[in-house]
User: Fold TetR/AcrR family transcriptional regulator from Pseudomonas mangrovi.
Amino acid sequence: MDRNGFGKRGTPASEAAKPRTKPLKRPSQARAVFTVEAIYQALVRIWQRDGWAGVTTRAVALEAGFAVGTLYEYFPSKQALLSGYVRHSIEQLLARIDEQAIAPPELDWRERLARLLRFSGEAMQPLFGFEMAQLEAQIAEPKHHLRAYQELLEKWRQLFAACADLPQPVSAQRVEALFLMVWGGRRYAALAQLDEARLRTWLEEVERLLVAALDSH
Assistant:
């Protein structure tokens, strides 16, 4: 029995040709950040237009206006490109919650909550989608899901900590329960492929439920 631990096993010959599924490096200089951002935007355009089957490293490079070699400096495969894009989307969501729902001092708790729900559950949220859910197994290990869970939960805790006008403080356990309810529901809505109208109705009902629960807490 292999006791090297998760992800430590030797690679069978049949799997040797599998593409690398992680980016090679993160951009640090301004020019590199611009390049990678343009690559992500090209990925999204092709994916929306042609589906995942239409996404190739060559097609993305051409769409972005770069040589294929430039893309390969960061992404050795389209799976690695998707992995980088998912991480980028999580970081964008965290920053958006921080800048627009937590930082503004003039917001009351209801508006902070409304923004949190809208940012997390809107129909255009790139982290959700039926095809994305189907592809997750190709790029994500349990440790990646755990990292995203912990980062997003911490952002929810920071938001509730910023709600000084709440009727009562909300415990860490309750914040996690609310987070699981919303995040889990949104992910399942993606698997069920709810249309935009039903998703919007669901978000409105969730907001009413949470406001009522927090008002009576």
